[in-house]
Amino acid sequence: MKKCAKKFILLSMLWTGLSFAGCGSTPPPEQPEKNAIETSLTEYSDENAAETEISSLPDETAATSAETSADTTVSQGGPYGKISLSIPDGWRYETCPMDSEETDYGLYGIRFYPEDVADGYISLNYTDSFGVCGMGLATEKAAIAGEPANIGTYDNNIYWDFISFQDDYDGIVALTYSVDDWWETYSEQVMDILDTLSFDSATREGGAYINNNEYDLDQIGLSFTLKNISPAGATLVFCNYDADAPTGELEYGDDFLLEIQKDSVWEEVPVTLEGNYGFHAIAYVIPAEGCSDQELNWEWLYGTLAPGTYRIRKSIHDFRGSGDYDEYTAYAQFILN
């Protein structure tokens, strides 16, 4: 398991949520309180971490709503593979697609819970970077769904707080949320459901930002990430997590450049636009200890991107006044399937 870090906490906040609302169209149980892992991660982040507002997305962006049926096979696809579970009669489930911003921890996944409980659920997600920290953590090894896994429990709870899968299922993490009231009754069924887990890493869809510490700009307290990635564009997200790091005001413009990785070497993506082209001379401000989004369509310049591993390059200015600024280069890496 990886150690927690300030930057990791901030980045995870950009894609996680704690609300039932966005993954189903029928009224689910009340939103539970954070489990021990999320509490530990939140306490570890310092006062400079930016709080992001949780919001529900339109129903069409969420996949299957809460439903019940006998031994229903539930699947959620994503850029790293397809997660599937068998949900028995008497249980409800919700699927959270990539970029729905409704996963509790990670990129996309499935929630499930007994249909007769007031609140609480199990969240099964894919994450590209899982870390836990805090006192009172006990771990044990197990085999679940035929794969090795680590089971973590905080403070001698009657329930486990997380299960992180290994080997072929690496990246899959199960978390418990407010299950205290029903765990003794349903714990065996929870494990039976998890034992039906399958993860098909060969079936991939969509795009995903790749967290790469090599591209950190700690000297100006800036993180540069992507969301809503498609072959035609993405949403660029700039966040200032340390207001004291820049000497002036952080700014960026419309300019950008795309590169593709071939045989571990980065090459510029060929431009498909004929003739000369340029970018508007404009400056967008990144608020101190805040975030700024930019919707970018690169199809006009590069066409529709083929599957592969890419990175986008942006110029960032630490602006103090006319003619008085420092220029930095920010990168954000992503994959397309």
Summarize the structure.
By secondary structure, this protein is mainly beta.
Shape summary: elongated
Say how many strands there are.
20
Helical content stands at 10-25%
The biggest sheet amounts to:
7 strands, antiparallel
What is the SS-derived class? Answer: mainly beta
Average of per-residue pLDDT values: 84
- Please give the alpha-carbon distance between the first and last residues: 27 Å
- Round the Cα radius of gyration to an integer and report it: 21 Å
Query: Which residue ranges are poorly predicted, with pLDDT under 50 across at least 5 consecutive positions?
Result: 1-32, 38-69
Succession of helices and strands: HHEEEEEEEEEHEEEEEEEEEHEE
Q: Can you tell me the number of structural domains?
A: 2
Strand order of the largest sheet: 3-4-5-9-8-7-6
Count of helix runs: 4
What fraction strand?
Answer: 35-45%
List the keywords.
4 helices, Immunoglobulin-like, mainly beta, seven-stranded antiparallel sheet, elongated, 337 residues, 10% helix, 2 domains, disordered N terminus
